[in-house]
Amino acid sequence: MAAKSPNHPKVNYLAALPGDMTITNIVKRENCDEFYITFKPPEHRSCPHCGSNNCVIKDSGRVQTIRHVATAQRGAILSFHRRRLFCKDCRTSFFERPQWLHPSLHMTDALYFTICLDLTQMLSVTAIARNNRVTASVVASVLNTIVWEHPTMLPETLCIDEFKGSSGEWDPVRSRWDVNKYHCNISDGDGGFIVDILPQITAEFLSRYFHQFSIHQRARVKYFCCDMHSGFISVARKLFPDARICIDMFHVIKLINDTIDEIRRRLQHDVEEQEREKYMFLKNSSRSLLTSEIKQERMNNPNNADRLEKLHTLFDLFPQLAEAYDALQGFHSINSKTPLIFKKAELTDWILQYADSQTPELKKLVLRIRYWRSYIHNTWQYQRSNATCEGLNNKIKVLKRISYGLHSFEIFRKRVLLTCGPMRLANDPFTIFREKRNGKGIKL
């Protein structure tokens, strides 16, 4: 089906075409609309090889068909005549390139930038292709033109954490993916975005990575927030001597909770088969044991009295659980206090109280907290946490789930930085893509 289209500015606007184009014909095909267009040739005939303007028309060229942005929920293609030019200086031939045409992909710049903007959203490649009425391979080709270079500056508050990525590089010798299960997330705790992600979490790999930054850049880091991963702590001590190391309080509380649950499971395993009632009592008490009494009082939970009655019955049967529960509630009480001097003093008393415990799991816990005590003090004093990393890790998991996994780490890294990187804070990402255009792709 063909229809003549008038040369009217509104038609070009609705079709997302530049005003200097003239639509000569529109053909309605099964899955798309084909626009036959003419345009004014570029005034400057610059050679792409040597930059010379001493170029002449060689021949009439050929008709070219390229993809364009979808209009009215239908795909669009443009067909136009493209002349071939000849450079007298370097003796090479080339086709003229209008400003609205992408230099390497068979699409307009408008479609290219639209796909780039969609890549900054939490969408799968298939969904982006469906929205723009193109194939998934077209979206992949656009993603391949984006080059996200490693950062040159470090944030003042550096947050670091690991996450499960299960991506890597293709090994052509073994014909399989060389996958790393865990990757490293480096985030800006103040800005709330991901600075970079790394394929490994070992201390040796992190040391090589941070050695790429100058001493001046590493000195900019004032706070180093992490969990109790020994590799992260060793890197912070070695490469960031001026930074205050802050252990996230969430992981400290989680360590105490895991210790109580470990004691419960050990006691549950030791219960004889004839004592089925005790076994089920222990099994169903996990949630009650790990609940903070301070939080329950603030929420005015009406079921709190019943929960405490059940716990007292449990503690009469298993005194070791009573001691571990008191340790947990004591730490919650210390953490909720406001003056720092009280927190430090009471944490020391807490360590002395449970350091000689007869429960091996609790004694091991107290030794670990005593080892990390100075970093816990930093967390309280400077009010820093690893919450930024934890929240962004959740976004990475969502991106990985909607993408059904990403095997290539480089593609995974680009998608993560496009969706969770500093670009999401920009008011106009479209302008960023235009300004960062370099050659045939985009460098960010």
Name some characteristics of this structure.
five-stranded mixed sheet, 45% helix, six-stranded mixed sheet, 3 domains, 444 residues, alpha/beta, single chain
Say how many strands there are.
14
State the end-to-end CA separation: 44 Å
Strand content: 15-25%
Q: What is the approximate shape?
A: elongated
Oligomer: single chain
Instruction: Give the low-pLDDT segments.
Output: none
Count structural domains: 3
**SS summary, helix count:** 19
Structure, explained:
This protein is α/β, with parallel strands linked by helices and 444 residues long. The chain folds into three domains: 1-100, no CATH class; 102-248 and 408-444, no CATH class; 249-382. The protein has 19 helices and 14 strands. It has helices at 9-14, 109-119, 125-131, 136-145, 203-210, 215-219, 230-239, 249-270, 276-283, 286-289, 293-299, 304-317, 319-336, 340-354, 360-371, 373-382, 387-402, 409-420, 429-435; strands spanning 2-3, 21-28, 32-39, 55-71, 74-87, 93-95, 146-147, 157-171, 176-188, 193-198, 223-226, 244-247, 437-438, 441-443. The strands form three sheets. Strands 1, 2, 3, 4, 5 and 6 form a six-stranded mixed beta sheet that branches. A five-stranded mixed beta sheet has the order 10-9-8-11-12, sandwiched between helices. Strand 13 and strand 14 (441-443) form a beta hairpin. Helix 14 packs antiparallel against helix 16. The longest helix is centred in the middle third of the chain and has 22 residues, at 249-270. The chain is elongated.
